[in-house]
Structures are given as C-alpha cells and as structure tokens.
Write a structure and sequence with these properties.
With about 350 residues, the protein is α/β, with parallel strands linked by helices. It contains 14 helices and eight strands. The longest helix is centred in the N-terminal third of the chain and has 16 residues. The N and C termini lie far apart (about 80 Å). Bound molecules: zinc ion. Zinc ion binds next to loops.
C-alpha cells in the first residue's frame, strides 16, 4: 500500500516537473457561476470607436441589427481623396447608420504651408459631413519636423487647428501613447508579455518622451481650448488608473473619454470601474475598436449590463493579459448615456 502511494506521488511530481511553455498553458477554470447570454444591447447603442475601412457596409449592418447597434463611427485611417471615398461608401449604404472621423494627415508635414493646409483640410472634412478628427500616437512618439526634432503634442502650431475644430463643432480625438505595459521592458515582469512578444513593435520602452510626459503634453491642451470638444480614446490611455482619468475629466468639462479596447482593464477592477461609470456617466462614450462581430459586441454588453463573474474579455487575436473580467451591472440611466446619449452630444455638436 505504502509502496503504491509512494509510486503515485512520484508519478504526479514527475509530470508536474515537465516544463510547459507559457504559450501552451491553457487552463480551464472550474468555477460554476452565473452565465448570462446578452444577445442585444439593452438600449440602442452607438459604437463611437471603430475602423471600418476594410469592411463591407452590408456585412456590418447585419451585425449591427442583430446586436442593437444603431450607428457606428468609422475612424478612417485613410487620408486625402481615399478618406472622402470611404466616407461616401458608408453614407451611400446607410446614411443614418454610419459616421466618419477623419485621420490627421501628416504626409506633407515637412512641406511649406503644412499647418495652414491642415486647417483647410479640416474645413473640407466638415463640409463633407465628417464628425471628428483624430490625432494618433505617432504624434509624440515618431513624427519629426524638418529640423529632426520629435514633434511635441502641445506644439503651438497645432493650436489654430484646435480652434477651428471648436468653431466648426468638430470634436478632436486623441489617441496618445498606449497602455502602461507598452512602456516597460518586455520581460518576465511585464503583465502583457505574451502580447508584446507577439508584437515587439508595440513596445515603446525607452521612447523619446516618457508616457507621463506624453500625457502631460496632451492634457495641457484641453484647458487652452475650452471651446473645443476633445475625446480621449481608450480612457485617455490611463485605464490602469481611473483616478487619473477622473481628475482629468474633473479639470476639463470639454473632455469625453471612450472605452475602446479597454474592457480587459476595466473588467478586472469591477468595483473601481463601476464607481467610475456611475460618477462620470455623462462623459464616457461606448466604443469597441474591434472588428465588428456578434461575439465581440455581446461580450461588451455582458460586461456592462450583468453581474457575471470571471469571463473572457473581448479582444483581437492576441490577448492583452492572462486574466478574466467581471460584469459591472450598470443601471439603465447610465447605460442609456454610455450607449447613446453622450455620443449623440458629440455627433450633434455640429
Ligand atoms: Zn482605434
């Protein structure tokens, strides 16, 4: 008997000692907890942050109808005539279901007259019915001016563009920097190691401006243009620190944030998230930043509407980190603002 027990222990210990590559580790959790299927958003919903350039309007509409998505805002990544073409393609397919945010065009940054041209382009976008303009993280991380200097986000040459956007009622969206983990070494302490190992070019460790500096440059702009509405994508890139986002919203009444691609961060701090959504219900817009798909939208609704525990977050193919999320069961009045009313304030500002 004792001999058998010894053998068993030996066997178990030997199998546990086998080195298992992290990429092969796929544990199945054993919790038996509530699972709520949410097929459609509880209220009509506007996805304020998506990228549809590569999509067919008909296919997207089918998913929207199935999930109670009233409208999708396409942040086009095209510039020049191609931007107008994609805008028209979606408007022609369903004018009331699609909107377009323009992508800031840096292609002729170092040619004479660039900054004046940016203001003219903004006017053209506005005339064509675009609903916003987006400045991406290349500003502050990679873009250099003719002298070889890294462009600052708070470069005063951008000021006339922000002022013009205010005049036209066109919100300015910023995606500045990236998650905190992307500014840390890609090593065993990095909680998004697998994601960064799969995409080493997403890492900005050792960047010219630190993440704190980048956010400080961005944050200084909002108070200087109080008549312009700003939207900080991805919870102002501080979903790891919602107190920071709260202070930013407190200080700047002209600022909104979207939740695009940050369900993983929000859903692993459900108590803090829930309080944040309740407190800033008027300032947060729903957005996904993920390819339109039934399951993707349903995971968002499950997170926002239910008390379900420990489930997968919506994400693209490479997961953000090895954790699960918890639903934050937002009340109806908050859901209505988050899903639709706040986005309408941005869309109807023009
Ligand atoms: Zn995006």
């Amino acid at each position: 008997m004792a001999e058998n027990t010894d053998k068993f222990i030996e066997m178990v210990t030997a199998s546990a000692r086998v080195e298992l590559p992290l990429s092969d580790f796929a544990p199945r959790h054993g919790l038996r907890v509530q699972t709520t299927a949410v097929e459609r958003a509880k209220f009509p919903c506007i996805d304020y942050h998506n990228h549809l350039d590569a999509q067919t309007p008909k296919d997207v509409l089918r998913i929207m109808d199935a999930c109670n998505i009233e409208r999708v805002v396409n942040i086009t990544m095209r510039t020049g005539e191609a931007a107008f073409e994609v805008h028209r393609r979606f408007k022609d397919a369903a004018a009331t279901r699609f909107e377009t945010i323009a992508w800031f065009d840096w292609s002729d940054l170092n040619e004479p007259g660039f900054w004046e041209r940016c203001v003219e382009r903004l006017e053209r976008y506005s005339d064509a019915g675009f609903c916003g303009i987006k400045l991406w993280k290349d500003l502050g991380l990679t873009l250099k001016d003719a002298s070889g200097e890294m462009l600052r986000i708070d470069d005063e040459r951008l000021a006339p563009i922000f002022e013009k956007a205010g005049e036209l009622g066109i919100p300015v969206m910023f995606h500045t920097a990236d998650p905190d983990a992307f500014f840390l070494p890609i090593d065993r302490f990095n909680e998004r190691y697998e994601e960064l190992a799969a995409h080493p070019d997403w890492g900005f460790y050792g960047s010219h401006f630190s993440k704190d500096e980048l956010l400080a440059q961005r944050d200084s702009i909002f108070a200087r243009h109080p008549k312009t509405t700003f939207v900080c994508a991805h919870l102002a890139e501080k979903s790891e620190d919602l107190a920071y986002v709260g202070r930013l919203l407190d200080a700047n009444p002209n600022l909104f944030v979207d939740i695009g691609a940050r369900t993983a961060e929000l859903g692993r701090q459900p108590y803090t998230s829930r309080e944040f959504f309740l407190k800033y219900a008027d300032r947060i817009v729903f957005g996904t930043d993920l390819v339109p798909d039934l399951e993707m939208y349903r995971l968002h609704f499950r997170f926002l509407e239910t008390r379900d525990e420990y489930f997968d977050y919506p994400s693209h193919a490479s997961r953000q980190g090895r954790w699960q999320i918890y639903g934050i069961y937002l009340p109806d009045d908050v859901l209505k603002k988050l899903y639709r009313e706040n986005a309408l304030r941005l869309l109807e500002a023009r």
